[in-house]
C-alpha cells in the first residue's frame, strides 16, 4: 500500500494509555510469549506514528513502496475508524503488559466486497508469528464484516509477507504490474487459520 512523502518525528504516547473500545484479547506466540491484540481506535494515530518512525527504512519501503512516506499522514489513515467507504478494520499488537506496541494490521475497503490488508511489525519482533496472528485476526474480522475477498500489494522481495500470506492457507491468485505483486485471496467459508491461537 503506497503513501506520500516527508516524515516528521513525534514522541509516541505510552501504549498503556486507555484507548477505550473493547478490551484486548491475549494470544500466545510459538515461542511462548504472550501478546495482546486490540482494535485500533481514532486516538491511536500518535501510537501508530511512533511505530512507523521506529522501524527501519527498509521496513518502511516494504510497507509503503518508498523510503520517504509521509508517516504522519499514514498513521492518521491507519487510525481512521469510520466506515465511509465500507468497513475499516484495524488491530494493534501490544506487549503483555500493554506498554509497547509490537505491530499493526489493517483492512481497508478496496472495491465492492474487497478489502486490502497491510501490516507492520516492530523491528526486533519479526519472524515470531506476530504478523500471522494479526492476519488471522483480520481475516476473521473481514469475514464478519461481509468482505468476500482480501487483496494485498506486496513488493516481490518481501519474502516474509509472501510467506505469511501463503501460510495462511487462503487461496491466492497473483499478478505483477509496475513492479508490485497484487495478491487476491477469496474468503471462502471459515477454516482453521494458521496463527489463530487465542
Ligand atoms: C511482513 C511482516 C508484517 C511479517 O510480520 P512477522 O511478524 O515477521 O510475520 P510472521 O513471523 O508471522 O511470519 C513471517 C515468517 O517468519 C517466520 N516465522 C514465524 N514465526 C516464527 C518462529 N517462531 N520462528 C522462526 N520463524 C518464524 C516464518 O518463516 C514466517 O513465514 P511462514 O509463514 O512461511 O512460516 C513484517 O516482516 C514487517 O513488518 N515487514 C515490514 C513491513 C511490511 O513488509 N509490511 C507488509 C506490506 S503490506
The major beta sheet can be summarized as: 8 strands, mixed
Q: Could you say which structural class the secondary elements and strand pairing correspond to?
A: alpha+beta
Shape: globular
Provide the domain count: 1
What CATH calls the topology is Aminopeptidase
Helix and strand element order: EEHHHEEEHEHEE
Provide the low-confidence segments as ranges. 4-12
**Overall pLDDT level:** 89
**CATH H-level superfamily:** Gcn5-related N-acetyltransferase (GNAT)
The helix fraction, in percent, is 25-40%
Tally of DSSP helical segments: 5
Number of strand segments: 8
Q: How would you describe this protein?
A:
With 198 residues, the chain is of the alpha+beta class. The chain has a single domain (25-186), classed as Aminopeptidase (3-Layer(aba) Sandwich), CATH 3.40.630. It is 25% helix and 26% strand. The chain contains 5 helices and 8 strands, in the order ββαααβββαβαββ. Strands 1-2-3-4-5-6-8-7 form an 8-stranded mixed β-sheet, with helices on both faces. A hairpin with a 4-residue loop joins strand 4 and strand 5 (114-121). Helix 1 (45-54) crosses helix 3 (71-78). The longest helix is centred in the C-terminal third of the chain and has 15 residues, at 130-144. The model is unreliable at 4-12 (pLDDT under 50). Coenzyme A (COA) is lined by residues 1, 30-31, 59, 62-63, 118-121, 126-132, 152, 154, 158, 160-161, 163-164, 167.
Amino acid at each position: 500500500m503506497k503513501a506520500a512523502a516527508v516524515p516528521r518525528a513525534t514522541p509516541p504516547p505510552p501504549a498503556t494509555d486507555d484507548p477505550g473500545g473493547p478490551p484486548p484479547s491475549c494470544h500466545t506466540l510459538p515461542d511462548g510469549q504472550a501478546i495482546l491484540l486490540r482494535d485500533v481506535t481514532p486516538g491511536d494515530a500518535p501510537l501508530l506514528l511512533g511505530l512507523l518512525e521506529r522501524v527501519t527504512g527498509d521496513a518502511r519501503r516494504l510497507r509503503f513502496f518508498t523510503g520517504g512516506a509521509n508517516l504522519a499522514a499514514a498513521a492518521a489513515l491507519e487510525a481512521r475508524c469510520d466506515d465511509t467507504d465500507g468497513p475499516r478494520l484495524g488491530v494493534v499488537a501490544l506487549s503483555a503488559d500493554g506498554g509497547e506496541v509490537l505491530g499493526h494490521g489493517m483492512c481497508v475497503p478496496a472495491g465492492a466486497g474487497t478489502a486490502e490488508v497491510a501490516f507492520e511489525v516492530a523491528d526486533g519482533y519479526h519472524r515470531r508469528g506476530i504478523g500471522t496472528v494479526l492476519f488471522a485476526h483480520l481475516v476473521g474480522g473481514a469475514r464478519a464484516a461481509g468482505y468476500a475477498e482480501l487483496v494485498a500489494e506486496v513488493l516481490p522481495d518481501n519474502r516474509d509477507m509472501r510467506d505469511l500470506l501463503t501460510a495462511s492457507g487462503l487461496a491466492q491468485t497473483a499478478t505483477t504490474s509496475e513492479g508490485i505483486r497484487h495478491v487476491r485471496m477469496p474468503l471462502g467459508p471459515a477454516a482453521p487459520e494458521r496463527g489463530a491461537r487465542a
